[in-house]
Each structure stands twice: as C-alpha cells, then as structure tokens.
Structures
1.
Amino acid sequence: MSDTRKEIERRRTFAIISHPDAGKTTLTEKLLLYGGAIQLAGSVKGKATARHAVSDWMELEKQRGISITSSVMQFEYEGFCINILDTPGHQDFSEDTYRTLMAADSAVMVIDAAKGIEPQTRKLFKICAMRHIPIFTFINKLDREARSPYDLMEELETEFGIGTYPMNWPIGCGIDFKGVYDREKQQILAFTESHRGQNRIEPIACTLDETEKLDSLIGERLRRPLQDDIELLDGAGYEFDLDSVRNGQLSPVFFGSALNNFGVEPFLESFLQMTMPPMPRISGEDIVDPFDDHFSAFVFKIQANMNKAHRDRIAFMRICSGKFLRDKEYFHVQGGKGLRLAQPQQLMADDRSIIDEAYAGDIIGVFDPGIFSIGDTICEKGQEVRFEGIPTFAPEHFAAVERVDTMKRKQFEKGIEQIAQEGAIQIFHEPGMVMEEIVVGVVGVLQLEVLEYRLKTEYGVDIRRRDLPYDQIRWIASSDRDPRDLNLTSDTKWVQDFKGNNLLLFTAEWCVRWALDKNEGLQLEEFSRN
Ligand code: G4P
C-alpha cells in the first residue's frame, strides 16, 4: 500500500454538533485529552482553564469584532489521525456553522439527557441528514437527573426520522447513576464517585444472567430494570446494521457523562471502528475518489482579518483527494489560474503551524489574497474537477441597511460585497429598487453587529440599520412562477439575491404554509444550490 493511501485510510474527519450547554466543549476537550493534544494535569486545572486553551483564538476574534469561527483540531489516537471540526454555537452561530458540516464526513451529536433535542441540534441535524452522513449520538450528563432513555430515543426517532441503536444502556441516573451496560461486549462500565475525572475506567465483564455479580455491582433495585430493558431492546429495538449507520439512517447512541470523562473512551473506540476514511465526493457527473493520487480540495470557509492591518484572509479548504504538497503549483478552477498556496497551515485553537504536506480528510488554511469564494475548487493542473458548490442556507435574521454618508457609495458597496463574498452575510434587494437600501440576511444575529463594526473600521462607512420582522426566507424553486402573481399574506416580501434568484421573506411559519396552500404547485426551498 502506498504511503499516501495509508495516510488517507487512517483519517477520520467529523464535526461535533449540539445545542449550547449540552456539553460539546467538554466532550471535545476529553477527546483531545485522549489524543494528548492538550496537556492537563488530570482535572486539577479545572475545566475553565481547559476551555480557555481551546477557545483563546475565538476570544481574540471576538475582541476584534469578527465572527467567531469554527476551529479545527487534529490529533492522533491509536493509529488514527482525527480531525474534529468545531461548530460554533450561542449567538456566534452563523452560516459558517452549517458550512463546516459540508467539510465533515460524519457528525457527533451531543444531547443533554435532561433536555433531549433542542432547537440548534434540530437545525444542524437537518444539514447532516441532507448529506446522509453518519450521525453518532452521545447522550450526556447522566450523572444528573435525566429523562427516560426510552423517551430520548423515541424523540430522536420521531423528530429526526432515523433509527437509533443504543450501544450501551444507562443504569440509573443522577445520584443513582451506576454506570452503563455495553450491549455488544456484555460488560458493565461502573460509575462511582471515585471515578470522577479519571481517564480510564476498567469495564467489568458481566453477562445479564450473572445475577449475584450484578447485584453486588449495581444493586438489585437497578439490576431488575436493566435485565428487562436489555431484553426489550434486543427483542423490539432496531437491529444493528453497519451499512445503515454509514448511510446516516441508524444512529448509534451512547450514554455517558463528558464532565466526568465517563463513557468517552468507549465512545471514541466504537466511533472509530464504525466510521469510514474520507468518502468520495461529487464533481459534476464524476465521483472523485479520495485515494486518487491527484490533490483536490474545496473552500468551505473564508476567515477575514486574521491580521487587520493587512486586510488578509484565510481560506479554509477540505482536502478531498490525494496529497497536498506545500511547494507544488495547483490550479484554482473558478479563477482559471495556476497558483501556489501560500502559508498553508493547520490550526489548533490559537496555535497555527505551517505544514509541508496534508492528505484527503485534512483541513488546511491558506493565505487568500482575495481570490477565493466559498465553494471554490483547487486541484492539479489538467485535472477536470469542480466540486458541487456549497449550498446557501436560509438566514433567520434580517435588517435593512443604508449608508449614513451618501458620498460613500463605492466603499459601502465594496464592503458589503466583500463581506458577502466571505459568506458572513447574504444580501438581497427589492426588485426594481436601486442599491440605496439593501436587505441583509444572517444566520446568527451577531453577524449584523459584526457587519456594522467591519464596515466602519475597515471601509470607513457608517450605516443605519433597521431590523426587519422576518424570520423565514425561502427560495422560489419553481422558475415558471412570477412572484407578482402569487397569493401571499400582506406582510410577505418579495426580494432577489444578487444572482437574480427570487425569494420570499415571511414573518412566521404559518405565512409559509399560506403561500404553499394558496399557490398550487409552488415549490419553496430552504437552501439554494445556485
Ligand atoms: P457546550 O460547549 O455544548 O455549550 O457545553 P459545555 O461543554 O460548555 O458544557 C456546558 C455546561 O455543562 C458546563 O457547565 C459543563 O461543565 C457542564 N457539563 C458538561 N458535561 C457534563 C456532564 O457530563 N455532567 C454534568 N453534570 N455537567 C456537564 P457550566 O457550569 O456552564 O460551566 P463550568 O462552570 O463548569 O465551566
């Protein structure tokens, strides 16, 4: 096997998704700990310090008023080379969060056992489902009072329309939490107070008919329901099927507690066994094999202002095939030009290091003199690759924006255009209107503040911003429909994006339903592929 093939085969690239506070940061830190990527003296330093380490870079960006971005973390574990893509949450939630999922081969969904599915999990799940990538569920915080595991699984199945397969099953919860039972290995991973913060917990082999042993481990009161539950799951639950997992139709579910580092290592081990190396990607009619010798990649994110003085940008690309070499000349398909990728680097929180080579599955950041756009393909000269673009996802917050100083038209337009090109905002206008006032749409509300700040500091333009009451936008997919002829609620607004696509802005979900009900055959899309 060639060295390149070996390298690609050991790559695993995934995103961690969750609603804020479910435990994404905590789980990520524990995973990094296994890979030795961050050094912590046990849990002595505490989580605050650990979190500080991985999010320093983001804090820096925040101070600069720039959007908080997804960072990439790479670490080695038992021969695997793992790339974790962090998806920002809270108010820094932005379209970048969605786009990051386009670069991942699978997703880990962290759910708070007391809360179940929450709004942000729902949104992110939709994108994963659209791509049919495998989704692994980690149900967290079992050391606290939790909802019934059956309830949680049913919620996942009915809301998301996927099957679930509990890989392990919780034994009690909260102060009564005794551990989890590993169904395949038939062993108990026991949780006791003394395990808090420990890295490795030795599982105890114990089949369900070893009643005495079970009683001594978890007590009779919890032993009985455990036996019943597992019998029920074995009889009535979904069958385990690796193909369904890999197609994103069946989600393996793990119960644990990230904060106590409980159940994290078995999760990581199973996850690595079930996931695949980088998968083929589509380029027009063709499929690009990741093991192909030729390098190819696509840009999924552009980060402006890594150094404000130079107005520089970094383009993040996901390598889809072959091996990247630092000094080789590559081809930028959309620009139609050959180029060397300057300062290729891998990021680990605030630590950036220049790299000489990278492989399919890896994410690299390269210096962008302003030539790349989201979705662009980079490949070897003479190789006909053009990856499917990254969809534009529906923004959820809208504002009308105009410049205060009417003289500054050029700067205003340039600033808005560049920021839109980076994918931080989307811009729309009312058909027939000149570009005096534009409608800006963003996925996360913080982006509007970032826009205001950046226009002022980088382009010297002050703006007036009027927040608009819309929270839904849909692309009109039926090209034969003239928006003027549609029967719509009076508060629905027709706009166009700058590619001339027609869209509708709605103030509520029921207005969307009205549009669909009253206009037979009308097709509305939540994202645009053009
Ligand atoms: P996020 O990235 O998904 O937003 O969540 P994060 O990891 O920051 O965790 C949110 C809160 O939940 C944190 O508490 C964290 O300590 C806690 N947490 C995470 N995993 C577990 C778990 O398994 N059990 C319990 N009981 N708590 C957990 P915090 O009070 O907000 O932060 P901190 O004061 O601990 O730093």
2.
Amino acid sequence: MKASLRVSRSAPIGAVDPRLFGSFIEHLGHAVYGGIYEPGHSSADDMGFRGDVMALVRELNVPIVRYPGGNFVSGYRWEDGIGPAAQRPRRLDLAWQSIEPNEIGIDEFQEWARRAGAEVMMAVNLGTRGVEAAQDLVEYCNFPGGTKWSDQRRENGRAAPYGIRYWCLGNEMDGPWQIGHKTAEEYARLAAETGKVMKWVDPEIELIACGSSNSGMPTFGEWERCVLRHCYDVVDYLSLHSYYGNRSGDGGEYLACCRDMDQFIRNVSAICDEVQRERKSEKTMYLSFDEWNVWFHSNDQDKQQEKWTVAPPLLEDVYNLEDALVVGCLLITLLHHADRVKMACLAQLVNVIAPIMTETGGRAWAQTIFFPFCHASRFGRGVSLQAEIDCPGYEAGQYGDTAYLESAVTWEEAARTLTVFAVNRAEKDTMALELSAEGFPALTKTEHIVLRSDDRYAANTAAQPERVRPETLPLTDETVLPPLSWNVIRYSY
Ligand code: AHR
C-alpha cells in the first residue's frame, strides 16, 4: 500500500504545550502504595520511593502529574495526610471501597514529583467539601508563611511554598458514581465560588473546571454550557475525560476510536466558543484532557476484588500491541488539537491503567503503551503541523471509512528537525510512506523507530517484561511502515 503525507511550514496548527504529556497518580489500587512508594523495596530511596519506578517515570519525561484523584478526591480530607505519619488516621475510601492509610499525603507527593522532575496538578474535593477546605489547601501549599496553614506547612519541614500552579475544581462531578455528585447548576456555582476564593489566596494559580466525564453522558453539552456560563471568568481550562477499549473484539473498529476523541474535542471547543461569544469575552477557554487512556481489560477482575483492604490490586490492565497503537492514535489526535488542548494526563502512571507496572518486592517494567507515550513526550515538541493524508481506507464499524494511516507531524525550528508520528492500522499490508514538506530545505532522514509484533495481542508481563519493545530500523531511501505498527520517523534539515 502507498500513502502520502503533506505538510507545509506555512500551515501550522499551533505550538505544542509540553503539558500535553502529563499523567496522573490517584490514591487507588497499587498506584501509590506498592507503586511509587514501597519502603521495603531494594531500590527505595530515603523516603521509601521506588528508584526503579522513578527511573521509568523520568524516562517518560512527564511534566505534570495530576493528584490525588480521580474519584478518590471527592471524599478526601487533605489534612489527614500531613504531619507525623504515626498520627495520621486510616479512613474508608468510599470511591474505591478500600482503606486509605494516609502514609502518603501532599508533602510526600510534592517531594516525589520534584524528584521525578514533574509539577503537581492538584485536585480539590468538591464532592463532600467546598470553598473553605480548598482555600485552606491553597494556603497550605502556596502561601509563604505567617498564617495557620502556611505555618503548619513550615512546621512540617517545608519552609518554601510549593507554588502549585494548576488546580482541578473537583473531579467528574456530573457522574452519579461520584461521592457528592451534583447537577450542573449545583457544581457550576460551587466551582465558581471556590475558584474565586482560591485565586484570592494565590492569584498566580490556574483553574480547571470539570467538563463531562465522557461524551456519552446524558448531560453532555448542557453540562459544559452551564459550567462555562457560571465559571467563564474565573477558570482557565475545561476538562475532558475519555477511556477506550476493544469491547466488541473488532480490532479494526477499535483502532479507529481516536475519531471519537477528535469529535469530542471539536464539540467541546465549539461550546466554549459559543459561551465566549455569548459573554462577549476576549478570553479563549483552553482544554485540559486530564484523563485519557485505554481501560477495559481489568473490568471483570475488579468486580471480584475484596473490599476494605489497603491498596488492593485494582484497574491493572495488561496492555497489548493493539492498545499501544490506540494510545499512539490518541496522542496523534491530541497533537492535531495542539492549538486548543494545552494540558492532558495519561490516566494513570503506575500499576493503575498504567504504562509502568511493578511487582511488590520485585521488578518494574514498561507496558506496551509506555513506548508511544515516551516517544511523543520526547519528540512531540515545537509546532504541530497540519498533515494532509492520502491513503486507502477501510470500514471501521461505528467510525465509518477510516484511513489506514494516522499521522501527526511536529517541527522544531531550534533543532532543525521534523518528526513524523505514524500508525499503520493495516493488519497485513506494509505501507510505503512518502512525505512532502513544503517550505523546508531538503530533509535528511535520521531515525526510524518502530513498535510492532507479529501478534497484535502480545503484551509485556512480569514473566516477559521485554516482549514488545521498540526497535530502530536501518535507514533506507524508502520509508516503509510495517503492518500494525507505531512509527517515529525523524528528519533534520
Ligand atoms: O482513572 C480512573 C478513574 O476514572 C478516576 O478516578 C475517575 O476520575 C475516572 O472515572
């Protein structure tokens, strides 16, 4: 099969914000306890953080990490997680029907993030709590000193304020599963008032309001309109969440699911613009796609999980090659919307629907989805260019006619490089890809990295942690994408 890709220096989409490659750690399953934190592990540092996990997180180059939830945050009392560890209470976590020991709290997580080279994106509880708890939390984290909560932080050994910049106003508040679920009107008023007060404590912070939990919610659209009408002036981003899975067993359809993400972003952007016009506002509302991933493999297993234990194994999806290609297509879709989506978080980071898995007392390894994320996060920098594709297609179930090629191109002027990210969705056919790049001097291909396998269900596990790994292809004049593959082709000029 032949495919062509056309880009032009004069047709940019927008600058890629590095925060597009954020991730997420929730107090859920083995994400924190037995994930990033395992004091008895041979690689643990002075605070009990696993060094092997830290090394993989650093390899992913994650600039922001959302914390502490997720559904968990809607019942969280942040004060439980500060001060002497021995005095911290154990609590019922109703979101995940587990016991939360509070060994890790804001101070420890802030330090973990610092060591991982990431900024914390903090979420406040708008499920069971409201204005006052959020105000106190901003004061604890960001106020220099001389007040109750800032002095408390100093007493806890953290003299300098954290300066946490990004704050989520609750989590998925439109979902009936949420602790303290709200109607759009109830949430919108609470978010507007909480956000206003948080900014009074620290005017430098940026706020993210909850959009719908996914585009299939019955209130989708009306929820966004109502929230924006109340919060437009106080918030800086609206959130989107979406999870995908091969539930029907139709691999061709599954590989096209990024078209849903694309449409979701277009629809939410249109609503933001509608409210902007209505309010005659100068401000563009940006989007924070702060939960996205594949999530379906562990659904049945999780229903069997014993309740009320500390850190039960939950949401431990084992990802295969097909899932990695979907994640690649979703990353490409985010790059296509670089002008609007300024932040995004792969949900999540360790053990819980995650690129990184661990064994208690044992090894840590990279799942298949680790690799497209790592490549996009390392090379998807600079400017995202409009890419015109000419390629045969196929019928992809609910998504209709879909090209075999999915691709995004980024351009870094300082490094004089172009990077092509490309997924070949064809099961059997190779794809000869021709790139034309208008307005650039002659290009020299410098690298072609590929992730592929003869088995679309091949996965990395504790027993076979390196079964699916990227390889570097020898450089040839022609660029050929293997069947069912994720590709990164780099050029210099
Ligand atoms: O990421 C797992 C869960 O998915 C989060 O806690 C919640 O926000 C979403 O429904």
